[in-house]
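tool_call: predict_structure(chain=1)
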Amino acid sequence: MKYLVTTLLFVFFGFPGHGQSVLQYELKKDAVFLVKQTAQQVITQELEGATQILTNKIDGILEFKVLGRIADTYEIALTFKDLNLQMTSNLQGELMNIKAKEVTLGDMQSQIFNSLLETPVKLVLTRTGDILEVIGGDSLVSKMANASGLEDEFSLDLMKKSLQKEFGSQALSNNYKQMTFIYPLKRIKVADTWDNEFLGKLNAKNHWKLETLSPSEAIIHGSADVVMNVTEPGAIMILRGTQESKIITDRASGFIKKMTVEGYATGTSTMPQMGNKEIPTTIKSSITYELINKIHVP
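tool_result:
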């Protein structure tokens, strides 16, 4: 689940004047956006002469509904409409294969992820894309843990602590900020650049450039130096690398038509069961987000 990566939306709003425009969110109340996410992550580890390759594949449908605007922020309901996860190893075969819509009786993982569907959380988003708060993540964690079927308090507490790292309010805020915080405060024109930075499990120093602006589309390119710092009970992973993003937006609506993110990072992993020996590790990832509906405003 630490490989689950999701995104929010990009809206472009331009003011003519001296050849410059303002890029920021400009969302209408009750607008609904459906985004299809597909992702693949390949993790390669050198284990005492053997090479282990873990391949994680994710696809899903995300719904974003604009609840309203308060001052210079938006409240947005994010709902998972569908989610499929698969993890395979070249040494061990298939390790996970979950279709959230298909609940298997007695299968704890399918029950947990099915409970994730149709349960909205609320994001508080600034007009530059910074996420100030996520409301409802902790309640979502409790619902997912309860869906596991575990009954004793100790096991439920352990389950909640594990899920909290990915679906708690703070974790969701950090995860979505990776993909939303792209806009500058200043007016810009084609070929202008700007920078920002965010922290979390993925720390990124981002450099953005407005490449193209036409009556129908805006194209933004992003590059970043990233540091991944993941600490789990069974492993610690520290990697450094780079990430490249390309965003195509529809100027008429301001929403993305398509977004692709390619990343590569290398470093080491350590595991207590292996005496905390440093294991060379690389991660190569590819994520695509694509709008599959038009803006809907009742």
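agent: The chain is about 15% helix and 50% strand. Proceeding to next step.
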